[in-house]
């Protein structure tokens, strides 16, 4: 994988690209007049493109970049006093802590960070290197027009690691809530903006060993989001919370 810049560039963009090149051990390639297709043909690998507002991953069949998307809508609803499914299920409140074991594009971590506030803590881990880079850097780099989300984004601690290894290294009762949102096995219409993510996502299934560690680390709840037809709710010991208007449901394991 290489890293380059947009056509229209400046010193700030160049500096950011070179900084990321060094941080992630990526080869920096000056963009020049090369199109993305030409970069693919010349280097035969995916490309990270740094622009003035985004850090984008491009491959022959996928384009991925961080954007708050539905997070902006969820954020406004919370400010307006409306409910949010994850917050309601997890009973998150200011000052609490949440470990997001599947960062993805960061929407759930953003909302959790908004709710727990400065006195709380949100830690998010991601096993896929591309997703980790795009989202962890996007949380810092994206020009939010929502100051609440901008502040929330800066508080999220991100790590590139798989869930089991990270959980194994944590003390007992380290987080109030441990959360999983594994990639669905089935397509869901309401998640079609994630179709490009599906092409590079980690489809590793959750197992009993990982959930056992999550139960040790969580003080209050272990929560999993999955397709409503998934058999993992029952097989891993989650109580499925059915939602009539959604094709994805939450599963809950209550600790205390």
Automatic annotation (TrEMBL):
The keyword Methyltransferase applies. InterPro entries: 16SrRNA_methylTrfase_J, SAM-dependent_MTases_sf. Pfam families: SAM_MT. Signal peptide: none annotated. The keyword Ribosomal protein does not apply. Keywords: Methyltransferase, Transferase. It comes from the Bacteria. GO terms for molecular function: rRNA (guanine-N2-)-methyltransferase activity. PANTHER family: RIBOSOMAL RNA SMALL SUBUNIT METHYLTRANSFERASE J (PTHR36112:SF1). This is SAM-dependent methyltransferase. It comes from Aliicoccus persicus.
């Amino acid at each position: 994988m290489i890293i380059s810049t947009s056509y229209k560039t400046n010193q700030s963009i160049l500096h950011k690209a070179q900084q990321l090149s060094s941080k992630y051990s990526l080869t920096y390639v000056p963009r020049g007049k090369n199109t993305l297709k030409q970069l693919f043909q010349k280097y035969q690998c995916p490309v990270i493109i740094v622009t003035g507002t985004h850090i984008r991953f491009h491959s022959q069949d996928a384009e991925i970049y961080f954007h708050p998307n539905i997070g902006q809508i969820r954020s406004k609803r919370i400010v307006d006093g409306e409910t949010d499914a994850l917050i309601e299920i997890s009973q998150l409140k200011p000052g609490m802590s949440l470990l997001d074991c599947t960062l993805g594009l960061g929407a759930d971590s953003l909302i959790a960070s908004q709710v727990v506030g400065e006195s709380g803590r949100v830690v998010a881990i991601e096993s896929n290197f591309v997703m980790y880079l795009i989202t962890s850097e996007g949380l810092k780099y994206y020009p939010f027009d929502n100051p609440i989300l901008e502040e929330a984004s800066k508080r999220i601690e991100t790590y590139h690691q798989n869930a089991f290894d990270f959980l194994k290294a944590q003390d007992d009762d380290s987080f109030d809530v441990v959360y999983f949102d594994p990639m669905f096995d089935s397509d869901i219409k309401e998640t079609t903006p994630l179709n490009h993510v599906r092409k590079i996502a980690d489809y590793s299934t959750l197992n009993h060993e990982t959930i056992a560690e999550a139960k040790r680390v969580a003080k209050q709840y272990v929560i999993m989001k999955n397709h409503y037809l998934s058999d993992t709710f029952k097989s891993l010991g989650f109580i499925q919370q059915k939602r009539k208007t959604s094709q994805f449901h939450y599963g809950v394991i209550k600790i205390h």
